[in-house]
Amino acid sequence: MGDVSELTAIDHVAVAVHDLEAAIAYYRDTFGAEVTHREVVERDGVEEALLAVADSYIQLLTPIRDDSPVAKSLATRGEGLHHVGYRVDDCAGARRWRSCTRSPRSGPSSSWSRNKGRRAPGDPTLS
Amino acid sequence: MGDVSELTAIDHVAVAVHDLEAAIAYYRDTFGAEVTHREVVERDGVEEALLAVADSYIQLLTPIRDDSPVAKSLATRGEGLHHVGYRVDDCAGARRWRSCTRSPRSGPSSSWSRNKGRRAPGDPTLS
User: Fold this and answer.
1) Helix ranges (DSSP H) in B1-127
2) A85-89, B43-47, B119-123: segment of lowest average pLDDT
3) Between β-strands A111-114 and A99-101, what pairing exists: parallel, antiparallel or unpaired?
4) What is the CA radius of gyration of chain A?
5) Which chain B residue shows the shortest CA-CA distance from A76?
6) What is the overall mean pLDDT for chain B?
7) How many A-B residue pairs are in contact by the CB < 8 A criterion?
8) Is the ipTM beyond the 0.85 threshold?
């Protein structure tokens, strides 16, 4: 590795919740945070709500299927932090990551990445 | 609440680890991330290493005492995400937060806050 980090920003912190409406209400009533994007992501078996925090997001996730990874995480660990997504300049070059996805909301130069499913000392990904 | 979020930035994502040296090596070797600050925080019973990601940090935490909250988290949940710290403009006004600390690294206008110990739907704090 060189001496420049591949991680250019924290894109999002994902929080697994049982009840998306209740979680949205909690963040709105407690901190004034509002939903800026909401989407069902069939591939991942989740519905997500994004709350902007500066240039990053809190990503609230709730399962839409019992076999989704988020449903399994809720069953075993309960509600709470699920993973962190980092932005990288070069998704193709980030081969050490398990998952690297070009983000539709940030443009092609700021894809985000998560090392989903990988466990190592200090690994920020729980799923 | 008004319609403006109190959360002005993600200050840090904290990751509980058993072995701080191994975690630092993992982030360096995998992503090129380097330690920018390191400190023993006696009050919290932890040693921390901060790795800058843009204007935010990955905060690696390892306990220095068996009775520290991070030691308890490692014993019950294992390594992984521990909490998220958000910046707020007005620490005194953020009374809904359990913990709000003026950050020495960000200046008085960008204290950070965590709702440590509080559990609610979607609460990002695990500790």
Assistant:
1) 20-31, 69-77
2) B119-123
3) antiparallel
4) 15
5) B77
6) 78
7) 148
8) no
CA distance B97 to B94: 6
Strand arrangement of the beta sheet that strand B46-53 belongs to: B35-41, B46-53, B56-63, B9-16, B80-88, B111-114, B99-101
Residue B103 Cα, gap to closest chain A Cα (Å): 18
List the one residue out of A15, A10, A14 whose CA is nearest residue A88.
Answer: A10
Token code pair at residue A115: 């090392």
Give me the phi and psi of A50, to 5 degrees please: -105, 130
Show the domains of chain A with their CATH numbers.
9-114 (3.10.180.10)
Looking at residue A29, its amino acid is D
Q: Tokens for B51?
A: 């790795």
Task: Find the mean pLDDT for residues A16-45.
Answer: 94
Say if residue B2 is exposed, middle or buried (CB neighbours under 10 Å; 0-12, 13-18, 19+). exposed
- Where does residue B61 rank: exposed (0-12), middle (13-18), buried (19+ CB within 10 A)? buried
Asked if B64 and B45 touch (Cβ cutoff 8 Å), the reply is: yes
Asked if A13's CB is within 8 angstroms of B84's CB, the reply is yes
Distance, CA of B63 to CA of B44 (rounded, Å): 8
Query: What's residue A90's pLDDT?
Result: 74
What's CA B109's distance to the chain center, in Å?
Answer: 18
Q: How far is A27 from chain B (nearest CA, A)?
A: 8
- pLDDT value of position A116: 36
Pairing of strands B56-63, B9-16: parallel
pTM: 0.80
Contact A29 B53 (CB under 8 A): no
